[in-house]
Write a structure and sequence with these properties.
Length: 400
């Protein structure tokens, strides 16, 4: 079986066209990340980057009153000078570190004061969420509303003890967790590569011979499925590694991986209590799982036709349909509809940036668990449909 899987791998995926597509898309991916940095990063300006590097050693690590006092000693005078917008804009005067006092003020506000204030205040905010949730538990129990009481208990448990004790440079992760371009590239490569898995035999009419040999049909089909899965996983691994390494290298940031996910303000209500590094790994796994579903869908679709162009176009349209549905229900109150779309695993930040629950059997299930269950269900349906089609085709051709 291993030999057969290797043969199917070499036959369908070790092609110069696929290797060329992977190489070109990899370069495009890195260029895209570089453009995001140039257009959005606070430190894209060399003077800001240089000053940030000089000051970072004084404020990184554990947040202490001493560090806060040192930062405020720099920031308060700048805040007072710019309050009435009458400060001098003379370029590079002796009292400024950057071009003028306004740029100094904005530098310290966005680079250090705002993120450090958010981190310092987060413990009190999380405590307030827990307090409110506990009050809601008592209220809903008085109304005999067991589901809402259990949901608030889940929220209280999730936020209990949350705190941000360290300051680190997290700008890289702010953009990394929102990055979807590589996922689209992977889907295009998978769609192109998987279209020929079943069609190659059909075009040469070898499918009749394979399906009528003793046990050959089933073994061949499973070998194709396993080889396709390995192809999808390897493409995903390659691009997810490029994403992480490129972001870390371009943003020159490697030290925030141990910070909690909710250090990012977008994830203030995060459904997870994990570090940024753990979240990056978890997100990559779920993205790959979503890609495996789409790969299975592409394979099932290609099996129905004898020409690669038709299933390719249908697959592309279905893909854009899933993307459109995801955009339509993003951040909406239709949580169940959102989780039914398998594309939500590919852009899984929608599942994790805030805690959302779906009632199942009277209990609150996190939306990411429900999304995973739906994807398994859809995958089982596609796999069952594919195997039934193969079996019927084998019986029909065998009988003929």
């Amino acid at each position: 079986m291993v030999t057969l899987i290797g043969y199917e791998w070499r036959k369908h995926f070790l092609k110069w066209t696929i290797v060329f597509a992977v190489a070109v898309f990899s370069i495009l991916n890195v260029l895209k990340i570089y453009s995001i940095h140039g257009g959005n990063s606070l430190l894209a300006d060399s003077s800001w980057k240089e000053l940030y590097s000089q000051m970072y050693g004084q404020f990184e690590g554990k947040i202490t009153d001493e560090k806060i006092g040192k930062l405020m000693k720099i920031y308060r005078p700048l805040e007072q000078q710019t309050a009435d917008h009458t400060a001098s804009t003379t370029y590079r005067n002796s009292n400024t570190q950057l071009s003028n006092v306004y740029e100094d003020f904005n530098f310290y506000r966005w680079s250090y004061v705002n993120p450090m204030k958010y981190a310092y205040d987060y413990k009190a905010y999380a405590h307030a969420v827990v307090t409110t949730a506990n009050e809601n538990i008592i209220f809903f129990k008085s109304l005999n509303n067991g589901y809402e009481a259990r949901k608030n208990a889940a929220v209280a448990e999730l936020f209990q003890g949350r705190t941000i004790t360290n300051f680190s440079y997290t700008e890289m992760y702010q953009y990394y967790v929102q990055y979807d371009f590589s996922s689209f590239l992977v889907l295009l490569i998978c769609l192109y590569g998987l279209m020929s898995v079943f069609l190659s035999e059909k075009e040469t009419e070898m499918d009749t011979l394979l399906l009528t040999t003793k046990a050959g049909g089933a073994k061949t089909v499973w070998a194709k499925l396993l080889a396709s899965s390995l192809f999808i996983c390897s493409i995903c691994l390659w691009f997810w590694l490029i994403d992480f390494v490129a972001y870390s290298w371009i943003y020159a940031s490697w030290d925030a991986a141990s910070s909690p996910i909710y250090v990012l303000e977008e994830y203030i209500h995060s459904a997870l209590n994990v570090s940024l590094g753990q979240y990056a790994a978890l997100s990559a796994v779920l993205k790959t799982f979503g890609m495996l579903f789409f790969g299975l869908a592409f394979l099932a679709l290609s099996y129905l036709f004898r020409n690669a162009l038709v299933p390719f176009i249908i697959g592309l349209l279905a893909l854009f349909g899933c993307i459109s549905l995801q955009e339509a229900y993003m951040d909406s109150g239709h949580i169940l509809v959102k989780t039914m779309n398998p594309f939500v695993l590919v852009v899984n930040r929608e599942l994790f940036h805030k805690a959302e629950y779906i009632p199942l059997w009277g209990y609150p299930f996190p939306s990411y668990i429900v999304a995973l269950l739906f994807s398994i269900l859809w995958g089982t349906i596609f796999l069952s449909g594919l195997m039934i089609s193969v079996r019927k085709n084998a019986l029909r051709k065998g009988g003929g």
